[in-house]
């Protein structure tokens, strides 16, 4: 069956949740988006998905973060083949960086995790390694509350892109 809105709408709830978890690893998020079906079109499903990310509590955001590898790292082994492929594609700008920039990203990732206690999350799609590194450095100066807001916004952007991919619309 083609992956489109009809496909998503027709899945049993547990299967819909499993498919949606490839877009955002928060169980509550996947349950909410699956329970809100049927959607009239992909745009409505995407809008609902983004709205649901914005409603997550911080622990639920942290759950979603657990599925994201560090910028420049390989996707985690426990991810589905689809999630791993998406992650590689999203981080292609960082993966093709020269050794010096990759080393700076590694050091920056560690400094970020030490400061904030979680992985640095950014919508890497369409960004070069140098752009990502500059944003990482800038965000190291954020307060914890400001950074949590930024992380949730980046998670919403990533989720938007992935839901569109899931539905064959991106």
Automatic annotation (TrEMBL):
Pfam families: OHCU_decarbox. SUPFAM superfamilies: UraD-Like (SSF158694). Signal peptide: none annotated. It is an enzyme of class 4 (lyase). Residues 9-163 form the Oxo-4-hydroxy-4-carboxy-5-ureidoimidazoline decarboxylase domain. It comes from the Bacteria. It catalyses: 5-hydroxy-2-oxo-4-ureido-2,5-dihydro-1H-imidazole-5-carboxylate + H(+) = (S)-allantoin + CO2. This is 2-oxo-4-hydroxy-4-carboxy-5-ureidoimidazoline decarboxylase. It comes from Nocardia tenerifensis.
